[in-house]
Each structure stands twice: as C-alpha cells, then as structure tokens.
Amino acid sequence: MKNTAAQSSLRPPVIAMPSAAKLQRWSIILGSVVAVLMFVNLYNVFVLVPTEKSMGIIQRIFYFHAPPLITSFVAFTVTFVYSILYLAKQRIWHDRIANCAAEVGVLLTTTGLLTGPIWARPVWNTWWSWDPRLTTTLVLWFIYVGYLMLRAYAGEEQRGARFAAVFAIVGFVDVPIVYLANRLWRTLHPQPVVFGGSGSGLEPTMRYAFIFSIVVFVLLFVFFLVMRLRVERTRLEVDQLKREMAFS
Amino acid sequence: MSAMRKLTTLVWKDLLAEFRTKELVSSMLMFALIVVVIFAFTFETGSSATKEAAPGLLWVAFTFASVLGLHRSMLHEVERGSLHGLLLAPLDRGLLFLAKAFGNIVFISIIEIPTFLLAVVFFNLDLSTGWDKIAVIFLLGTIGFASVGTLFSAIAVNTRTREIMLPILLFPVQIPVILSAVNATAAALAGRTWEDLSGWLRILAGFDLVFILVCYVTFEYVLEE
Half-sphere exposure of B27 toward its Cβ, with a 13 Å CA cutoff? Predict the structure, then answer.
C-alpha cells in the first residue's frame, strides 16, 4: 500500500491543474475587480439606498449580513461537490478546492453571524433568537469548523483528504434536516418577533443594492478561493520538487 | 456465505466480545448514571423545573455516554489489529458498517433502560401513558446517533486528537436528532398522543434512513488503507 502511494505521488499529476502563474494572473484580475466593486457597494449602502422607515439607519447592515451568508452556501456547495468528486476520482486537486472553499465559507458564515446580532439587538431587542435560519447557520458554522479541525488533525495527507470528504458529505446532507427540525421546534413555540421575508417587497433601489452586494460577495469568494488555491498549487509543486530531489 | 450470514457473524463477534468483558456497557452505564445524579443536584428537590429539564438531561446523559462507547468500540478494533483482519476478509465494507452500527445500537439501548429508570425515580416522572412512545423515541434516536457515530468514530480514531475529535464532529451533525428526541420525550412524558409526536418521529425516522444510507456508502472510503 505504501508503495503505490509513493508511486502515485511521483507520477506527474493526472488532472490538469492550473499553473501557479495562471492562478496568480487570475487573482490579480479578480482582486482589482473586487476592489473597485466593493467601493461601489459601500457607496450603494451608505449613500444610494434610502433609510428604512421602521428600523432606521441600522438596516443598512443588511447588505453586509445576508450576502455573505448566501455566498457561504455557494462555498459549502462547492465543498460538497468537490468532496464527492474527490472520493470518486481520488485527485488531490479536488480535495484542495473543497478544503479552500470550506475555509472561505467559514469566514463568510462568521461574518454573517457577527453582523446578525448587531442588527438584531436594536431591532428585535435581543442579540439572538432561535429562529430556524439563525440556528441552522450556527450549526453550519460548527460543522465546517469541525471540518477544518479534522483536516488539521487527520495526519497523513491522503487519509485526511478522504476523512474530510466523507465528513463534508455528511455535514452538507445534514443541513436541510437541521432546518426542518428547527422549524418544527419554532412552530411549537412561536416567537413574538417575526422576521418578514427579506426580498419580498424590497424597494427597487434596495433590491438593486442587495443583488449588487451578493454579486460582490460571490466575486470576493472566488477571489479568496483563487488566492488560496495559488498557495496550495505552489505547495504541491514544492512537495514534488522535494521528492524529485530526494530520489535523484 | 450470504450477506445475512456475514452480517450476523459480524454482529455476533461484537456481542460475544462485549459479553466476555462487559467493559463497554458497564463503563457507559456508570457514566450515564453519574450524569443523571449530577443533574439531580442542580435542581431544588420537588421543583417543577426538574420535570421540565428531565428529557433534556436524559439525552445529554445518553449522548455523552454514547460518545465514550462509540469511541471505545472502534478503538478495540484498531488497537488489537482486528480491523486489519476484517479488511482482509472477503466482506463488503458496507456490511462492516451495518454490523458495527448494530452492535453500537444494542449497547447504547442496554444502558438507556436503567438510566431512564433512575431518572424516573429521581425526577418523579409519570409513566402511566407513555411507555410505548418512549421506547419508539429512544430506538429511533439511538439508531440515528449510533449510525453516524459509528462512521465518525472510524474517522476520529485515526486522527491525532482521537477521543476529543469524535464529539466535535458528531454533536453538530446530531443536533436534529437531539432536538427531536428531547422534544418528543417531553411530549410523551406529558401524556400527548401519537399525532402530537408524529412531526418529531418523522424527522427522527427521516434522519435515520438518510444517514444509514449515506454512512453505508461512505464507510469504505474511511477504511481504505
């Protein structure tokens, strides 16, 4: 078994990995686009959109609360899809994509979990409510921090990648069940504060700013992902060179 | 050998090993009983809060004790090299999972009964109407806990942090099971009907079905050496 592992790592990677130079070029392009769009986004949030009538100025945090959370779902879906691909094809690059997407996803979920209470406190008069969406997001955070810890402590590389992929699949499948269980829990104990469906009946400028912000955060996610993948690509290359030197 | 024969042989191996040492069940049981006793101290005797908290603390005792048992049961396989033997045997890896999960379900169910009876005595629970409901809830909850727990214990036992890794991975994924089981237990103890419980039971049964399938399929990737 050991033997085949060494052989497969000596072979040049079967999958067409993008080169480090290409990833760097993309990260520069994406970085500049995101930098410009993020300023436009800030302008939208602070200058363009009207102040919400009942909630006041604090409602503007909405544009930095929902978009990161929506984007985190994109990130975890990427992790899920590439975890399945990794188990099916055993290509290390797929594992790297899954892993890096989960890292950025945790960052985005953390952003959403931090901006949420800041908004909730003045509006709902409480930092936290066990609303299904809040609870599910919190559980999601725990699952993917667990994923990153597993990745860090799993030891040997290929085994760790397999463990992480299995855990990512179980965790992702779990999310809808967490949501259903929490919805049932909350319908039994109705909350006085009900968060009216966002997106329903948004004022046109607000809707534009909201959608714009989602696009910016998705691009930000792609930018971070490409930056992280560039590091991983370089790492794989260094490992390869080390191995070649050791065997020459 | 047919798949059924293989399965019963594997399960029998686990049950026999446990019957000879009684190591797993006895340590899990003592731990669960101690948890219940410690919780009993946190409430004033005879206060109504005790009864309200009883379903929650029961499931805390079950889940904590289970994590110990799940970890040990997988550690036996790894430490004594019996896992290597099983991997060499002409067996479907999915069968190994089913056998291991079944053994764990049996062990956890065994400790649940005395733990529950102790809670009935300490917290003065009323059982006139709910025996059958409690049994169904405990079984469905235990199946969900043990199936995912068996898969994760095979992962955790191979990591550097071992026993601490298992609850960190398992508890967040188990939140729907714990939430449903606690609420269903509370409803059953309050003398509610089957209809009142059906929502929770559906979530428990759904979780069990989905994750037995997912774990069955992914278990081979965890064992691959």
Answer: 14
Q: Counting runs of H as helices and runs of E as strands, what totals does chain A give?
A: 7, 0
Neighbours of B160 (CB within 10 A): 10
Quickly count: other Cβ atoms within 10 Å of residue A211's Cβ: 13
- Tell me whether residues A167 and B172 touch, CB distance under 8 A: no
Task: Note whether B84 and B91 are within 8 A (CB).
Answer: no
CB A155 within 8 A of CB A168: no
* Nearest one of B118, B109, B113, B133 to B39, comparing CA atoms: B118
φ, ψ of residue A56 in degrees (nearest 5): 80, -155
pLDDT tens, A153-174? 887 788 889 999 999 999 999 9
pLDDT in tens, B170-210: 999 999 999 999 999 999 988 888 888 899 999 999 999 99
Nearest to B72 by CA among B108, B36, B38: B108
Alpha carbon distances (Å) from B49 to A169, B33, B45, B68: 39, 20, 9, 28
DSSP state of B160: T
> pLDDT tens for residues A183-201?
888 765 545 444 444 445 6
Looking at chain A from residue 110 to 169, which residues have their Cβ under 8 Å from any Cβ of chain B? 139, 142-143, 146, 149-150, 153-155, 159, 162-163, 165-167, 169
Report whether B57 contacts B35 (CB < 8 A): yes
Angle at B39 between CA B33 and CA B43, to 5 degrees: 145
For an interface test with A, which of B87, B218, B223, B224 has the most A Cβ atoms less than 10 Å from its Cβ?
B218
Q: Mention every residue, 6+ apart, whose C-beta is less than 8 A from residue A14.
A: A91
What was the ipTM of the complex prediction? 0.90
Instruction: Supply B210's token pair.
Output: 């989905």
